[in-house]
From TrEMBL:
Highest taxon of source: Bacteria
Protein name as annotated: VOC family protein
Chain ranges of the VOC domain: 10-136
One Pfam family matching this protein: Glyoxalase_6
Gene3D superfamilies tied to this protein: 2,3-Dihydroxybiphenyl 1,2-Dioxygenase, domain 1 (3.10.180.10)
């Protein structure tokens, strides 16, 4: 069964798979504290376990190195390591950041307003992930009117 409503899309879902040494702690953090609903879970031979959590609408954000450096600077004040970072849109950026820190994440960038009008924080989270929690402070149509925003042109 498809979880996507756009029948014309070539890809129906983006799924990010992470290996968590402490599976139970990761589930408690992402499912119970961040409140990502569990779609399904499986158990297999040799204590194999997986839980698939619904993170709402998924997007793939592709940034060049200059953009990554800028985002790192805005969210944390310094360059962060390379690799994949997950970002979760929430309705209460400060509250969610506080809850996640209480559940074991380490805040590396306190909630702060960005130049593109969102409230972002950065955390080191279970399963070795660096995450951003963001709350949009402005609707997309308003943001699209700002200089520098729009769609990438095909070069």
């Amino acid at each position: 069964m498809s979880t996507h409503t756009n029948d014309s899309a070539g890809v129906l879902q983006l799924r990010v798979i992470v290996e968590a040494e402490d599976f139970d702690a990761a589930i408690a953090f992402y499912r119970d504290t961040l409140r990502l609903p569990e779609q399904v879970a499986f158990e297999g031979d040799g204590d194999a376990r997986v839980s698939i959590l619904d993170a709402g609408r998924a997007t793939l954000e592709i940034s060049n190195p200059a953009q990554k450096r800028m985002i790192d600077q805005v969210e944390t004040g310094e360059r962060q390591g390379s690799g994949i970072r997950l970002a979760f849109e929430v309705t209460d950026g400060r509250g969610v950041t506080t809850k996640l820190a209480a559940a074991g994440a380490t805040i590396i960038g306190e909630p702060r307003e960005t130049p593109w009008r969102s409230l972002n924080s950065r955390l080191d989270a279970p399963a070795g992930l660096q995450i951003t929690v963001f709350e949009e402070l402005e609707e997309v149509p308003e943001r699209a009117q700002r200089a520098g925003f729009g769609k990438a042109d095909s070069r």
